[in-house]
Amino acid sequence: ADAYCNFSGPFALVGLIIARGLGVQMRLVWHRRADYPVKVWWKVWGFNGWMRLTERVATEILSNSAVALDVFHPHRDRTCNRYRVIPNGIPNDDRDPAGLRSAWRSQLGLGDSEVVLGHVGRWSPVKNHEFLFALVAALHSHGVPVKLVLCGLDTDSADCKKALKRAGIAEVSIALGEVDDVRGLYPAFDVFVFPS
Asked: Are the C-beta atoms of residues 74 and 51 closer than 8 Å to each other?
């Protein structure tokens, strides 16, 4: 093989070691989240050691956010190009496959004239929902009639709904939780917001 890429971030070490043992020259690790999957101090300490070993075995360390690199590789050489951020994005082509905008808006009870801010991401502090909620509240306080649609793991949880209520935007927000066809949901948004 020419390359090995592991998308499991802090859990990539074993696969990287095997790939190196097999002579694979390009060994990439990708961080898709920016927080530790554990919270107990000694487990976090163990993960830090694990990540230092990962740095020694991986030839490139990639992430979709600078925050993840700061969390998992805080002492990295910031001038070294083996640590890179590749931002999330949505392709410009095929913005409304099969006319899904109208179908999703109808299903969500949204009219074509309503301005919809959409966010896709799990309910987690690293996703910076507090900023997004403050943004929507500020827009409403200035008379901008926007609706917020949240999609992702636990966005339909009681905690998320309480946060929407605290921000004063529960009435203009739709919390969907996980959605099977996320790509089909994007056309329902007028603005895609990714605050993390």
From this structure: no
